Amino acid sequence: MYRTHNCGALRMEHVGQEVTLSGWVQTVRDKGFMMWIDLRDRYGVTQLLFNEEVSSKELLEAARSVGREFVIKITGKVIERSSKNDKIPTGNIEIEVSQFEILNASQTPPFTIEDESDGGDDLRMKYRYLDIRRNPVKEKLMFRSKLALETRKHLIGTDFVEIETPFLIKSTPEGARDFVVPSRMNPGQFYALPQSPQTFKQILMVGGMDKYFQIVKCFRDEDLRADRQPEFTQIDCEMAFVTQEDILNTFEGLTKHLFKTMLDMDMEDFPRMDYDEAMSRYGSDKPDIRFGMEFVELTEEAKGKGFPVFDDAEMVVGICAPGQASEYSNKDIKKLTEWMQRPQIGVKGMINVKYNADGTIKSSVDKFYDEAQLKTWLAKFDAKPGDMLLILCGETDKTRKQLNELRLEMGNRMGLRDNSVFKPLWVVDFPLLEWDEDSNRFHAMHHPFTSPKKADVERMLNGDHETMKALRADAYDLVINGVEIGGGSIRIHDRALQEKNFKLLGFTDEEAEDQFGFLMGAFEYGAPPHGGIAFGFDRLCSVMNGTHSIRDFIAFPKNNQGRDVMIDAPSKIHDEQYDELYLKSTAAEKVVE
Amino acid sequence: MYRTHNCGALRMEHVGQEVTLSGWVQTVRDKGFMMWIDLRDRYGVTQLLFNEEVSSKELLEAARSVGREFVIKITGKVIERSSKNDKIPTGNIEIEVSQFEILNASQTPPFTIEDESDGGDDLRMKYRYLDIRRNPVKEKLMFRSKLALETRKHLIGTDFVEIETPFLIKSTPEGARDFVVPSRMNPGQFYALPQSPQTFKQILMVGGMDKYFQIVKCFRDEDLRADRQPEFTQIDCEMAFVTQEDILNTFEGLTKHLFKTMLDMDMEDFPRMDYDEAMSRYGSDKPDIRFGMEFVELTEEAKGKGFPVFDDAEMVVGICAPGQASEYSNKDIKKLTEWMQRPQIGVKGMINVKYNADGTIKSSVDKFYDEAQLKTWLAKFDAKPGDMLLILCGETDKTRKQLNELRLEMGNRMGLRDNSVFKPLWVVDFPLLEWDEDSNRFHAMHHPFTSPKKADVERMLNGDHETMKALRADAYDLVINGVEIGGGSIRIHDRALQEKNFKLLGFTDEEAEDQFGFLMGAFEYGAPPHGGIAFGFDRLCSVMNGTHSIRDFIAFPKNNQGRDVMIDAPSKIHDEQYDELYLKSTAAEKVVE
Fold this sequence. Notes:
2 copies of one chain form a homodimer.
Chain A: E1 18-30, E2 34-41, E3 44-51, H1 57-64, E4 71-80, E5 93-104, H2 121-126, H3 128-131, H4 135-157, E6 161-162, E7 180-182, E8 190-192, H5 198-206, E9 211-219, E10 231-240, H6 244-263, E11 272-274, H7 275-282, E12 296-297, H8 299-302, H9 308-311, E13 315-321, H10 330-341, E14 351-355, E15 361-363, H11 371-381, E16 388-394, H12 396-413, E17 424-428, E18 433-436, E19 441-444, H13 457-462, H14 465-469, E20 475-480, E21 483-490, H15 495-504, H16 509-522, E22 530-536, H17 537-544, H18 575-580, E23 583-585, H19 587-592
Parallel strand pairs in A: 3-5, 6-9, 11-17
Antiparallel strand pairs in A: 1-2, 1-4, 2-3, 4-5, 7-8, 9-10, 10-22, 12-13, 13-16, 14-15, 14-16, 17-20, 18-19, 20-21, 21-22
C-alpha cells in the first residue's frame, strides 16, 4: 500500500494517527538534527518532519539524499505543528516520519514546479509532464473535466442522448482543409477526419434521435495562430422539431447552469442583438458588451465641410473614450495612431477631439471644423467634459472593423474588460450568404446546411442575384465578453432547398451529389425540421476562467507548426507503411525546390 | 412551436387538454368516415383519431394523403379511448385531431421500421437513418449514452479526472498497424491515430494526475472480422501509487456500480483465477464460468494402453457433458466431430465415452480400454449415469484451445450460456513475455510497458533466456461470460527496466529512443509507481445487453471492408490535396498488378 491518505487530507482531527503518504518532494529544509520536507501530490502539500529523536539517524541520512521532485513514501504520526501555516488546509499538522522509502529519483527539473514557473513556453511543452504538476495547469485540467461532466449531466438530464459519430469519414473539399487518412484496404482512397459531426448529427435527426449531443474532437488542417489547434473539442448539439427560439432557450439554460455549478454565478437572461445592429454599434459580430464606447456615426455631420479625408469617405464613425482627454498627450495620441497604422489594422489616420475638463475643445481637425460644429459632434456622442473622441473614416466594413480594434484596445487600456465579469450576448439573424468579390461567388456565412428564414425561402428559390445578398438565416452565435463561444443554425431539411443552396455556393450537381448525396437522400425519407449549435469547449473553459489562452486547458497541445514537441510528432514513417498505403512521398523534391 | 408533448407522454390525466404533437407516421388505418394514425417519435407512439364529425372533411382528405414515415404535426384534444391498448403507456388515450400539417413527405422506406425489420444488414447500414428509428437500435444507442454518463459520474465521483489526450500522435510500428495522417505543415512527416492513449496516460501519471480516465476513440488498421471495427471506444484509465490489488478493487467497484445502475443487478465479489489455472481448467484466458464442464486431464490414465493416438499425444484431456449420453446418436457424434474438424478448429479426431442411464458404458475406444479402465476415467470426471465424455488429445496448447471451442459449443447446445446471467472473473498473473518460435523473438503478452511482478524484477534484469519465459506480470483481464471486457497492468516506471524490456522485445537502442524516448525521459523526473486498465466500451455495452454484436451500439459502424456505406467513405481525394501533402498515389499500378 502506497498511502492511507493523500497529501491534502490531514487535519487536526487526525493528530495521533499513524499514516502513510506518497508524493513528490516540493522543498527540503535541513537544520541538521531536524529536517522538513514539503510533500506534494495532486491534492495538496503536507509537511514532513524528520527528527533525530524520533526517526533514526540513518533515516535522517537517507532523507537527506533526496532532491526536488523525488518520489517518496513515508509512514509516521500526525502531530500538531508548533508554528502553524494558515495558507494551506494541512497547515495545522505535520508528520513525524518513522519510515521512509525513495520510490523513484528525479533529475533536477529544467524549471521550477511552482505556481509562477521560470520555464518558457517551449520548455514547458517539451516537459509537459512537469508542467502538469504545477497548480495552474493541473487546476485547469480538473476544471475542464468537471465542466464536461456538468455539461453531460445537464443535457442528458433534459433528454439529450450522447451519440458518438465516426472519426473516419469522407473528405469534402469546401470549407476548411481536411486532415486525410489513407485507407490500406481501399487503395487510392482516403478517409477524412471530421471538421465537425455536422452531417452525421443531421442524419441522427432524420433517424429520430431528436436531442443529440456529443463532446467531441474535431480537426482542421489550417495554418495555426495562437489560440488555434489542429484538433479541438466541441460541445456539439442538434435538435429536431425546434425553432431558433427553442435552441436559444435550451443552450442559454445550459450556459446558465454551467456558470452556476462551476462558478456559483447567477446569470440574467441573455440579451439578443441582430447581426446588423452588432455591426453598426460595435463593428463586430462578437461585441464585448462589458463596456460601452459604442460607435457613433458622424458621416452626415462631418462631410461637406471641406475636410477632404472625410469628404471622400463612405463613413465617418468614432467612439467616445470617457475621461481620457487629459490622459492622452499629443505624443500618446501619435503612438496610438501608429498602433492603429500597423498592417494588422491598417488605418491611414485617426482624428481626435478632446473635450477638456474646463469645457474647451481641442481637435486634430480644428482647421476644418469650428467649435459649434465640434459641439454637435460631442452632443451626438453624449460626451462630457474630460472625454475624448477618436474618429475613423473610410469604406464602411473596413472602417468598422478598424474601429472595433480601437474600441477593444481602449477598453483594455481603461481597465473596462474585467475578466471576473461575464456578459453573454446572442447575436442573431446573420446573413445567409456572403458575396465574395475576389472569387465572384457566394460563400455560406455559417455553413451550406443553414436554412434561410422561413419568410425568405420563397425569395431564395425564385429570387434574382441581388435578392440572394439580402437573405437572412436562422443563424445565431453565443458571444461572451467578446469571445464567440458557439454558433449554430436551423438547417435545411428539404431536398430542393438544399440543392438550390449548393448551386448558389457554386457546387455543380455532380459535386453536390458526390459529397452530400447521402444527406439529400435522407431528406427524402421523412426528415424533420431541425437545427443545432456547437460550443467551442476549449474556449468556453478559457472564457469561464477569465483567460485568453486555451493551451493550458489542453493536456497536450501542439505548437504553431502543428508539432507535439514532447513526443516529437509528426515524424517519418517506414517505407513499408508507404507501400501498404499505395503512396509515395514527393517531399524530398519539394523541400529542395 | 412543433409540440407541447412528445409521443410517449400523454396519459388519462391529460384527457380534455389540447395538445400539439409532431412525429412520424407509423401506421394508417382508414375506415372512411374515421381514420387512425399511429404517430411515433423517440419517446413512444400516440394514436391520432381523424373523425369527420370533429375534424373537417378537408382535414380528413389531407390526412389521407400521408404514407408511412411522413413527418406530420397535429393539434387536437386528448380523449379517452373506447378500446384501450395496455401494451403501450399511451394506450388509454387518443388525440381527436383538429389541425393537421405535413412537415415533410417520405418515400416508401426500403425496409419496415419495426422491432423486427425485414431489412438485411447491408440495406440497414446504407439507410442507417431509417434503421436508427427502430426501437432495438434506438434503445441500444440510448443505453450506451447512459452507460457512458454513469461511468463518468462514478469515476469523477471517486476523484478521477477525465483528460483528453491527443488524436494526432506518433506512429510506432510495433503492435497493431497504425492509421497515419500526412502532415501538410511538416512535409514527408505523418501523425498516427492512437491505438490507445497508453503513453499519454503514463505521462499524466508522471505529471501527478494520479487518477486519470477517458472514454475515448481508438484506432487500429487491422483486417476486420465481425465484431471488430477500425475505430472503437475504450474506457481508458490509469492510477498512480497503486498496486494491482487497488486497481482490481477500483474497477470491480465500477463494474458493480454499472450493473446496479443500469440493470438493477447486485453482483457478488468477482472471483479471481490465475492465467495458468484458467488455461488448464478451461483452455482459455477468458473462460465462460456460467457453466461447468471443466477440463479433466486423462494423460496418465489413457497413455500406455496400446491406443497409438493417445500414446503419441502430449496431452489427453476431455469434458463431461451431463445428461448428453442419450442425446447423441452415432450420427450426431459424427456431425459434432466434423464440426470440430473444420479448419477453424482442426482436430483430427474426437473420442467419446457414453455412461448410459442404465449404467452401461459405451465408447469409441472400447477396443483399447476395458470397462474397468473406462470407469476410472468416469470417476475422474465425477460422471453420473447419462453423462457423456468428449475427449481430445495432442499438443497441450493446441488441444486446450480446441477443447475450449468444444466446451463453449456444448454449453450453447445445452442452453447453459444464459445471457441474463452475468459471471465476471478476474484472470491474473499473465506471463510477461511470449516466445514466438516463428519470428524467434519475444512478444509482450500485454504490451511493452507492463511490469514484471516485483519478485521477478531481479530475474528479469539479470536472468538468462529461459528465465525470461517464466516471468510473470502484474497483468489482469476482466472477463464476463467468456468475453474479455478489459485488461491492464502495473507499468514499468524505471528507465533501466523499461530499456531491458525493449531489448528483450527486439528493439535496438535507437528504435527504443526514437519511439519512446520521451517516456523513458519522463521516468527520470520522478515517475511514480502506476498502473491502469482499459475496458472495451462497445463490448461492455453488448455484454450487458446479452448480445454478441457490437454493431448496433455504434451509431455509424463500418463494414468488413472498413467502408461507411451510407456516406460512401473512404473516397478519392483531389490532386491538389495530394500535392499539398507531398504525396503521390501508386494505387493505379498496384491495382493492375
